[in-house]
């Protein structure tokens, strides 16, 4: 089913009346009709199109998908984007009357800046990008998407387009377009074909002008159950047992972009059974959680993690999630709260699960407090999944076998990325979670109390359980990811 470059029916009419043009032929139009559509709208469509109509029934889901594809698809090649700015209007006229939550696909304004931004955001959502980077350079502007954790350039027009493009984005995010000397942060609420998209916007002065990063938050794909995180059965059963405990601190650790927030939200969904007062402190709040009290940090006015955590203790919480333990003050308050017999969830930036224990000790948490209150530490990474359409087998080298602890003389085929249209020539499509979990039992509690080394803690914790590397090895052997991808995500010191 092909659509013309310029849809024959306006978006508002198609959306409201449940009609969409599927095919335009010289003698007739093929019209998709949503189940329950207004039959009188067919008369108006026939009047506007001025050709006989061939009707095809569509389910609501089919209609929404076709509607989104037809009205949001926009050329984003450099030449097309640059040509679109010839004879453009002033920025004031482009933005006048645009509501902050307006649907990107709605309206008849063909202003080139608007059409370019619409196309960029739609394409980013369509390709499941997490971030859009707009970076001006001396002679050109680079627009890159972060897809599955890796940046890919999608647009490289002249740098003269940077100023109007960035100004338009700043206005949409309610930022000061006259201020270009200091960083600014804002937010845009959008709707694309009925899907609610939240965009976090951050600007930063650079040598050749402001750069903008937009983080795309799609709530429809964000809130997952624990079973959707891709944990192996053993790790999933162990983390469920940890969450069933009535008190103590559970930490999730890993680098930025490793999925820590998604894991915490999934854990909260288990604890939020309607009988508990669940409260979170976040910086920023990424997704709204039904039935949970969420508080946004505001450091400029003193609303820090530590100060707010003390305040919410007077609101009788049963479960608290602290976005990140960054300093000793926050750590102390969190451990004091957990010591009163209630569970706390939080994150720490370290490379390994045992490293989080050492980090808390370095902050100044006493070993006896740590041993008595810490329940578990989950370290995680996200590795890209090999594209099933183009992955290629190859004989494992002795070095690859040694990395994963396999016998050097074992004859085994592993898999590597190829590249095809389905995966955008990257060889990968989607991501997998890789985990290591330390649960604090009697033996570990004694080691922590005695202030033993990180290596000693790891030797006991992972005697019978996976490390990050051995957990990733399952996916490498099964052909779901590659050796190169595991080594990219797990640092060398973690694989030694």
Question: Could you describe the 3D structure shown?
Answer:
- The chain is 35% helix and 26% strand.
- It is of the alpha/beta class.
- A 7-stranded mixed sheet has the order 12-11-13-14-10-15-18, with helices on both faces. A 6-stranded antiparallel sheet has the order 6-5-4-9-8-7. A 3-stranded mixed sheet has the order 1-2-3.
- Helix 13 runs antiparallel to helix 17.
- About 6% of the residues have low confidence.
Distance between the termini: 53 Å
Low-confidence stretches: 73-101
Oligomeric state of the chains?
Answer: single chain
Radius of gyration: 26 Å
For the sheet with most strands, the description reads: 7 strands, mixed
**Strand segment tally:** 18
General form: globular
- State mean pLDDT (0 to 100 scale): 84
β-strand amount: 25-35%
């Amino acid at each position: 089913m092909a659509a013309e470059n310029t849809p024959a029916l306006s978006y508002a009419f198609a959306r409201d009346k449940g009609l969409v043009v599927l095919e335009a032929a010289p003698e007739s139009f093929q019209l998709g009709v949503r189940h329950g559509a207004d039959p009188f709208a067919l008369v108006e469509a026939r009047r506007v199109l001025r050709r006989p109509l061939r009707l095809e029934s569509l389910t609501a889901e089919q209609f929404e998908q076709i509607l989104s594809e037809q009205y949001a698809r926009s050329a984003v090649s450099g030449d097309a984007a640059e040509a679109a700015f010839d004879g453009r209007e002033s920025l004031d006229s482009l933005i006048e009357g645009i509501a902050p939550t307006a649907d990107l696909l709605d309206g008849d304004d063909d202003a080139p800046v608007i059409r370019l931004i619409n196309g960029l955001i739609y394409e980013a959502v369509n390709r499941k990008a997490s971030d859009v980077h707009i970076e001006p350079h001396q002679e050109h502007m680079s627009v890159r998407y972060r897809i599955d954790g890796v940046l890919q350039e999608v647009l490289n027009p002249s740098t003269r387009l940077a100023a109007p493009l960035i100004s338009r984005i700043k206005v949409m995010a309610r930022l000061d377009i006259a201020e270009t000397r200091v960083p600014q942060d804002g937010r845009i609420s959008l709707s694309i074909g009925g899907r609610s998209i939240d965009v976090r916007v951050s600007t930063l002065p650079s040598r050749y002008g402001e750069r903008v990063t937009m983080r795309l938050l799609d709530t429809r794909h964000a809130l997952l159950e624990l079973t959707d995180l891709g944990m192996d059965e053993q790790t999933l059963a162990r983390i469920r047992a940890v969450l069933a405990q009535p008190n103590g601190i559970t930490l999730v650790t890993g680098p930025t972009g490793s999925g820590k927030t998604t894991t915490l939200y999934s854990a909260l969904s288990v604890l939020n059974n309607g009988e508990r007062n669940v409260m979170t402190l976040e910086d920023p709040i990424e997704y709204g959680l039904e039935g949970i009290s969420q508080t946004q940090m505001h450091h400029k006015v003193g609303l820090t993690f530590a100060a707010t955590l003390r305040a919410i203790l007077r609101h009788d919480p049963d479960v608290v999630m602290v976005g990140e333990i960054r300093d000793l003050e926050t750590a102390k308050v969190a451990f004091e709260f957990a010591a009163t017999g209630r569970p706390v969830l939080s994150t720490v930036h370290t490379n390994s699960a045992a490293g989080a224990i050492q980090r808390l000790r370095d902050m100044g948490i006493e070993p006896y407090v740590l041993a008595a209150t810490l329940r578990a530490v989950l370290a995680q990474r996200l590795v890209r999944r090999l594209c099933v359409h183009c992955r290629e087998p190859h004989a494992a080298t002795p070095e690859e076998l040694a990395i994963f602890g396999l016998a050097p003389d074992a004859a085994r085929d592993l898999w590597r990325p190829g590249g095809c249209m389905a995966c955008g020539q990257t060889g990968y499509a989607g991501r997998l979670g890789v985990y290591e979990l330390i649960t604090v039992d009697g033996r570990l509690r004694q080691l922590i109390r005695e202030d033993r080394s990180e290596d000693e803690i790891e030797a006991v914790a992972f005697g019978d359980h996976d490390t990050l590397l051995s957990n990733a090895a399952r996916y490498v052997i099964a052909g779901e990811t590659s050796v190169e991808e595991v080594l990219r995500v797990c640092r060398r010191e973690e694989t030694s």
